[in-house]
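Handout, page 2. Input:
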Amino acid sequence: MRRTVFNEDHQAFRETIRAFIEAEVVPVYDEWFAAGQAPRDFYYKLGELGVFGIRVPEEYGGAGIESHKYEAVMYEETARAGVSFGGSGVHVLLGLPYIEMLATDEQKKRYLPKFVSGEEMWALAMTEPGTGSDVAGMKTTAKLSEDGTHYVLNGAKTFITGGVHADRVIVCARTSAPREDDRRFGISLFAVDTKSEGYSVGRKLDKLGLKTSDTAELAFVDVKVPVDDLLGEENKGFGYLGKNLASERWGIAFGAYAQAKAAIRFAQQYVQERTVFGKPVAAFQNTKFELAACQAEVDAAEAVVDRALEALDAGELTPAEAASAKLFATEVAHRVIDKCLQLHGGYGFMNEYPIARLYADNRVNRIYGGTSEVMKMIIAKDMGL
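Output:
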């Protein structure tokens, strides 16, 4: 089936990324897995490779290419190799859109060159203990000082991907109380320097999957945040968060599709090599039928995420379309990866096999960025229901 989303430039980039993964990631990936995170210096290598600056304007050291297609290639190549780039995915997928949308020229001059080089890794701190998907219910506060030079940040966040290595974190905090008619009012966004006094990283969370991605609890005790690090306008943060959810959900959808595609590749290799009852597992009709059904589902998911990618690049991806793509692709990936693991038999349950890690990594796709249930609510509302 011929795809039309990628051109020769994307193919050249794919070859570069594939060679980089083989040389820099595959040989040490087991060490990262055991350590529970990628080493900090790996992100400098990604910066040198240029992957952080693809969508950053040239004046700040980037390539100035306004497209998510290079990110899509990286999703496919990391999944294909059964690896990840640690917690760096949020740096571009979650960090960059807010800088692009909200930062002043002065802020961009301060933030973006270090963003591109990997000198400053970014994360997004939205979720709090006890609030989950209810962002408007957050309790973290940021109060303006009497002299008006800084905000005083107090509170806690959890499930923050990239939180251990982050140098700057976009923290969502209440600068005003919610209104009776609008509980979403009063949230603001801050680009917080993690070296600030009173800022601390708590536990590095022990997750079911995504073992090489550092995910942490964060705490803020009277952290002074300069007014120059307020992103956008006060009290309008909830609206800003909503605008970037479509691109985040596309990223999760595309990543899930890439995982499902990789799962078929791993299963095909395994069933052709593994012999049972004197013949390859691939020779059994059940194996052929299961993999054929998986392939059909992945073909459909590819069409969905490619369409969403084109819409995203055109600036036309709606919240409902993003929710639909995420719901469909993540549910497909869940079914496909489970079937591909089953075809591995007992070996599919061993972490030394990529399919086992893929199975664990994939599970969170139906939770973060909005659960499948929340996606259904968004789609239903768009349907007028």
